[in-house]
Amino acid sequence: MSQTDKAFQAAEDATNQATAAAEETVSRIRDMNERIIEGSRNAGIASLDAYEKALENLVQLQEQTAGASQLDWVNALAQAHAKYVQDVSKAYTDAARDLLNTPLGGAAAPKGGAKKK
Fold first, then answer.
1. CA 76 to mean position of chain CA atoms
2. Whole-angstrom Cα distance, residue 97 to residue 99?
3. pLDDT digits (tens, 9 = 90+) for 62-100
4. Which of 15, 44, 60, 77 is the most buried (most CB within 10 A)?
5. Is 107 part of any domain?
6. Taking Cα atoms as reference points, which of 47, 40, 26, 38 lies closest to residue 108?
7. Residue 49, Cβ density class (10 Å: 0-12 exposed, 13-18 middle, ≥19 buried)
8. What is the pLDDT of residue 26?
9. Is residue 67 part of a domain?
10. Distance (Å, rounded) from C-alpha 37 to C-alpha 43?
11. Is the residue at 116 inside a domain?
12. What contacts 43, CB < 8 A, 6 or more positions away?
């Protein structure tokens, strides 16, 4: 084997090693990004769950307050407002959960989706 052939072989070996190292690095970065996205989705789901719970408590308080009133129109108004808050918050949280279930950059949505716990 000539000196030139040895030099070309050494260069090819170095290129192959560098390519393998670069591919390994890219793979580790992808894995890390997927973990970050999954963690963000989980945090989003937890935030939605807490938001829903807070709104449920607010609606419950409004309904109790409405029931305590001796005026029919106040009771009806409070009940209507409580229903409105429930409907709007359900639409908001459902839309947010749908977004959390949408794949981002090819990353898979969480198993089972962003369902309410």
1. 37
2. 5
3. 888 888 888 888 888 888 988 999 999 999 999 998 988
4. 44
5. no
6. 38
7. middle
8. 96
9. yes
10. 10
11. no
12. none
Q: What is the mean pLDDT of the chain?
A: 86
SS3 label, residue 26: helix
Q: What single letter denotes the amino acid at residue 71?
A: L
Residue 72 is assigned to a structural domain of this protein = yes
Q: What is the pLDDT of residue 116?
A: 54
By three-state DSSP, how is residue 74 classified?
helix
- Tokens representing residue 98 in the block: 């749908």
For 85, the token pair is 């808050």
Which pair of tokens denotes residue 106? 């090819």
Largest CA distance in the chain: 104
Q: How many domains is the chain built from?
A: 1
Q: Which domain holds residue 8?
A: 3-100
